[in-house]
Amino acid sequence: xxxxxxxxGTKEAAPILLSGLTKLEYRGYDSAGIAVIDxxxxxxxxxxxxxxxxxxxxHNGSDLHGFTGIGHTRWATHGVPNxxxxxxxxxxxxxxxxxxxxxxxxxxxLKEFLISQGVTFVSETDTEVVVQLLEYYYIQLKDLRxxxxxxxxxxxxxxALVILCKDYPDSFVVARKDAPxxxxxxxxxxxVASDATAIIEYTREVAYMEDGEVAFITKDNIDVYDSFGxxxxxxxxxxxxxxxxxxxxxxxxxxxxxxxxxxxxxxxTMSPRIRDNRIVFDDLKIDKAFMEKVDRIYIVAxxxxxxxxxxxxxxxxxxxxxxxDPVLASEFRYSDPLVTENTLIIVISQSGxxxxxxxxxxxxxxxxxxxTSIVNVVGSSIARESDDVLYTWAGPEIAVATTKAYSTQxxxxxxxxxxxxxxxxxxxxSEYNKIVEEMQWLPEKIESILQNTDQIKYLASxxxxxxxxxxxxxxxxxxxxxxxxxxxxxxxxxxxxxxxxGELKHGTISLIEKGTLVxxxxxxxxxxxxxxxxxxxxxxxxADVMAITTVSHADEMQKNVDFAVAxxxxxxxxxxxxxxxxxxxFAYYVALQRGCDIDKPRNLAxxxxxx
Length: 611
Ligand code: M6R
Known about the structure:
Layout: E1 3-8, H1 13-23, E2 31-38, E3 41-48, H2 52-57, E4 68-74, E5 89-90, E6 96-101, H3 107-116, H4 127-141, H5 144-154, E7 159-165, E8 171-177, E9 182-185, E10 190-193, E11 205-208, E12 214-218, E13 222-225, E14 231-232, E15 237-238, H6 254-260, H7 262-270, E16 274-275, E17 278-279, H8 288-293, E18 296-301, H9 303-320, E19 324-328, H10 329-332, E20 343-349, H11 355-366, E21 370-375, H12 381-385, E22 388-391, H13 404-424, H14 429-450, H15 454-463, E23 468-473, H16 476-492, E24 495-500, E25 517-522, H17 528-540, E26 544-550, H18 554-558, E27 563-567, H19 575-593
Parallel strand pairs: 18-19, 18-20, 20-21, 21-22, 23-24, 23-25, 25-26, 26-27
Antiparallel strand pairs: 1-4, 1-10, 2-3, 2-4, 5-6, 6-7, 7-8, 8-12, 9-10, 9-11, 11-15, 12-13, 13-14, 16-17
Helix pairs in contact: 3-4, 4-5, 7-13, 7-14, 9-13, 9-16, 13-14, 14-19, 15-19, 16-19
The protein binds 5-amino-5-deoxy-1-O-phosphono-D-mannitol (M6R).
5-amino-5-deoxy-1-O-phosphono-D-mannitol binds at residues 302-305, 349-351, 354, 357, 400-402, 486, 490, 607-608.
């Protein structure tokens, strides 16, 4: 969601900004723009639609000259995605241009004040208020630094801001509150970006901005100040993933590449945490004494990460016999949650920047809970604010629809549940051993599914024209159906819903008619027969049924459905890790048949940094 890049150095800024913005495309956006300072004038080019429009408008950046500039991809919140509302925004007298990620909550009040002072606005955005206010104070105070600190005292909401001032042609200023921003240290040049993908081509040395910090950036220096204006030293980190991890590497889409990377991603996530067939979390601060006191576990997340939490509920309750509640972060934060110091909060987030999840984390922390997070992006805000962070080692995930991050989150959550169960002796040793053994076979078993995609491809070509698709399943298969349905709808734009099979007869079955496609999940062995009864019910009403089941249940399933896709058997708590793969592939091939923009579905963003 909104991507930011800034550069100052001794090379032309525009091509660097355009290339950085292209790398940030995956975050989701609907307009884009860049601004570069040339001989004391800020020149801007903006456009609705894709970044290619900026390349075209500027002849690949060659029309804009200057060594310092800022760029932005905008995911519209206030005002439609047109050229005027696109960032950068320029102040009325052309002194200052800014790009902004986040939402200024008191923008109406500030706008009214500025209008009363004679300022004219051109856009519908909240961001323009910031740039006009900054110029207003700059003119009054005659000092950019003072004006910036003044503005930061006045604005409310979330922001990652990058500020260009025509009087300082060799520098820019950045400020952060509740929106991601990292500083990049180059050789004779420096950067700022929403995430490392934008700048890794130029530097691997970064520092993560914290809330309240302001940085003044020239080609040779980055001076960082806290919210009181005191200088601070930032810890430098080295990005250790390879640039090829953020490239398609011959695949048509990032999503397909990332589906294919799942075996390796799971191996990387799992193997450092299994020693002599025992699960180890060396760096976890939670000990047995704490776990013995825990009387409730909340798993807080959004979207697919929440679906991982749904699987976690079934598995952790089974293993630990403690109530486990998956809660949508956007609901949790406003629900006056029942959190005490005996509550364990597990936060799950691929990006580590999801605003709802971040806010829920803070709410729980305020109430005294211990926060353990499962995060993919190293150094992200959620990782930094948690008491414990467990990283999924999935590598950068670029496609908006998550696949490998989901799979690694699932692996890690199952490992955590089993680790706690071992600690509390709530799992039999033989069961523990069996699960750990089966876990280590997951990558191979997923590989075997990925080697045989023809059947799924065929099913996608058969069903891609459907308008509405239902996913049904019980217990873990219900959680699996939720994720399968989300994958399909987000990238193919087909209406889809997931139901607990037993719930169909309480209303939804009225929607089933001749030819409706139902994807029946039958991978959860203990309730296979019950699931079959529900399959029979929808078939009796004319539904086409495509099933996902296990090899051991395939024959039985095939008797009652149109098509049955079989995944290898594993321990039942791990079965969703296999069941999800054909569902990801189905969504992918359906979207491909429908000609959708698979990696960047409409209206969606990779990292959702607004409420
Ligand atoms: O980065 P997060 O895991 O916090 O993101 C949560 C959701 O926005 C995310 O899972 C979203 O639902 C994906 N697009 C699903 O594929």
